[in-house]
Amino acid sequence: QAQLVESGGRLVQAGGSLRLSCAGSGPTFFSRYAFGWFRQAPGKEREFVGAISWGGESEYYADSVKGRFTISRDNANSKMYLQMDNLKPEDTAVYYCAAGGYGSSEEAFVYWGRGTQVTVSK
Questions:
Q1: Which tens digit of pLDDT belongs to each residue from 80-104?
Q2: If DSSP codes are grouped into helix, strand and coil, which group holds residue 55?
Q3: How many CB atoms lie within 10 A of CB 40?
Q4: Closest CA to 78 of 2, 36, 22
Q5: What's the confidence (pLDDT) of residue 50?
Q6: Contact present, 95 and 37 (Cβ < 8 Å)
Q7: What is the spatial distance between Cα 15 and Cα 87, in angstroms, rounded to a whole number?
Q8: Is residue 1 pLDDT above 80, yes or no?
Q9: Per DSSP, what are the bridge partners of residue 36?
Q10: What whole-number distance in Å separates Cα of residue 66 and Cα of residue 108?
Q11: HSE value, Cβ hemisphere, 13 Å, CA-based, for 62
């Protein structure tokens, strides 16, 4: 069964950087899908952060993170990353990785991880 596991979330000061990782079930599964990152802050709905295409040739991001966050993927090692720079307190959320189609809606994604907590202090 397909499995995604996020890691790397922790407490960081505003202005700092953090890299989240998403590990997949294996290269056969991993290379079949586009991947995305979503986040959910306390009391808010889950929102789209960014997505990367199957081969990693293209990415796109929510306006709120554009220019600060970068997604990359390593299909050979079944991993995807979210590099987050210049973090702001409003980036505090549980971050989820997801596998599926190349889109920005939750409906585009089939498999989801359980999330990793990112907390940005002032």
A1: 999 999 999 999 999 999 999 999 9
A2: coil
A3: 14
A4: 22
A5: 98
A6: yes
A7: 5
A8: no
A9: 51, 98
A10: 21
A11: 15
pLDDT number for residue 90:
97
Locate 42 and state its tokens: 């306390």
Asked whether 13 and 121 are in contact (CB, 8 A), the reply is: yes
Task: Strand 5-7: give its sheet, edge to edge.
Answer: 5-7, 18-23, 79-84, 69-74
- Examine the pLDDT at 26 and tell me if it is beyond 80: no
Report how far residue 88's alpha carbon sits from residue 71's, in angstroms, rounded to the nearest whole number.
Answer: 18
In the three-class reduction of DSSP (H, G, I as helix; E, B as strand; rest coil), residue 110 is classed as strand
Burial tier of 106 (Cβ tally within 10 Å: 0-12, 13-18, 19+): middle
Place of tokens 């990415």: 59
For the record, the structure tokens of 74 come out as: 């390593």
